[in-house]
Amino acid sequence: MSLTYRNPFPSELYGGRLTIDPDAVAANWTFLNGKLDSKAECAAAVKADAYGIGLKAATAALYQAGCRTFFVAVPTEAIELRALLPDAVIYVLDGLFPGTAGHFLEHHIRPVLGSLAELQDWAALCKSADRSFDAAVHVDTGIHRLGLSPAEFSAAMSDRDLLGPVVPSLIMSHLACGSTPDHPMNRRQLELFREVTAPFADVPRSLANSAGVLMGADYHFDLARPGIALYGGKAIETASNPMKPVVKVEARIMIVRDVPEGDTIGYGARQTARRPLRNAVVAAGYADGMIRRASSTDERPGGFAMIGGHKAPILGRISMDMITLDVTDVPEHLLRRGALVEMLGPTVAAADLAAYAQTIDYEYLTSLGRRFERVYGPLT
Ligand SMILES: *Cc1c(COP(=O)(O)O)cnc(C)c1O
């Protein structure tokens, strides 16, 4: 799939390049869809600009692969997506903000009703029109963010006065500990979800995010809502990542220089050269999504980049616009001024960097900079 995306400036003027492979997103969706029973549907979470990779490119690839149901977080994202995909089913995970029901009807988007108040608002709308409009009902099975409590859910779902004509198009819940499949919370949530939804056998059910899809058939129900795995992220912390990489971030080498033993590198002078070093300064920093917590000090190692198969550890603090890399052991011919080095991508997994930055790869993806050249195509 090719998507014409025009950068406003010539390539050589950018500090770095962000390459995104929509075909890999499509392949990842096809892989996850293949894990599901043929009766179950594979949807896609495309909130936050499709986890930072670009809503338009991601949804075009997903739709072409066969995906027809999409989850966003907020109504503005849903309206943007509606303009791109006129006939897709679109759910808004954050549910019904006050006074917004009319917008949902106008754009044919569906709220995921996350509280009794939201369900009552929606029911009032349906009563006044004397028909049901499609909406999901969210039941909280233990994460304690959004969702009716199991008791509220069971009471509301059998209260015809409250519901009026409302027939939910989906009942869903969300896993708190999917990234660690052995956590006992997963089974507890699964069993509670089965129990509270049992009386409503004709309403489709959804529990699985990416991790839920990979955890096996018990978690699949009628519809799965993967996000991170579509974008190459690591949904399960304790297993190897089966997904194709989707994103590559490269930064341009500005200068390569020597640092004498005993001198310090970067803001705060927290990193001392323990031997004579060669370092390369590249044009990407925390303003480009290179999370500052992956900085290195004398006490704690930081993240790394890869240059032609050679590891180049981050030296010192990550600045807003640049990072210093230890290239002492990288062959000189790979260190040309102006060359691009991989900061994140097929050989620098976001999940690995995230371990140094005390975060998760989701944060790396959704922080991807707006200052790079953007290329949609294979991650060559
Ligand atoms: C974001 C989100 C998803 C997708 O989760 P991943 O871990 O990215 O697969 C699914 N369901 C809900 C409710 C979400 O908020």
UniProtKB/TrEMBL annotation:
EC id: 5.1.1.1
Which CDD domains does the record associate with it? PLPDE_III_AR
User: What EC class is this?
Assistant: isomerase
N6-(pyridoxal phosphate)lysine is found on K47
Q: Which residues form the active site?
A: K47 (proton acceptor), Y267 (proton acceptor)
> What cofactor does its activity depend on?
pyridoxal 5'-phosphate
Q: Per its UniProt entry, which superkingdom is the organism in? A: Bacteria
For the ligand (substrate), the binding residues are: R145, M320
Which keywords annotate this record? Isomerase, Pyridoxal phosphate
GO MF term list: alanine racemase activity
Which InterPro entries does the record associate with it?
A: Ala_racemase, Ala_racemase/Decarboxylase_C, Ala_racemase_C, Ala_racemase_N, Ala_racemase_pyridoxalP-BS, PLP-binding_barrel
Q: Name one matching Pfam family.
A: Ala_racemase_C
Annotated catalysed reactions: L-alanine = D-alanine
User: Where in this chain does the record put each Alanine racemase C-terminal domain?
Assistant: 246-377
The pathway noted for it is: Amino-acid biosynthesis; D-alanine biosynthesis; D-alanine from L-alanine: step 1/1
Q: Where is the signal peptide?
A: none
Question: What does it do?
Answer: Catalyzes the interconversion of L-alanine and D-alanine. May also act on other amino acids.
Q: Which family does it belong to?
A: Belongs to the alanine racemase family.
Query: Mind telling me what this protein is named?
Result: Alanine racemase
Which species?
A: Roseibium salinum
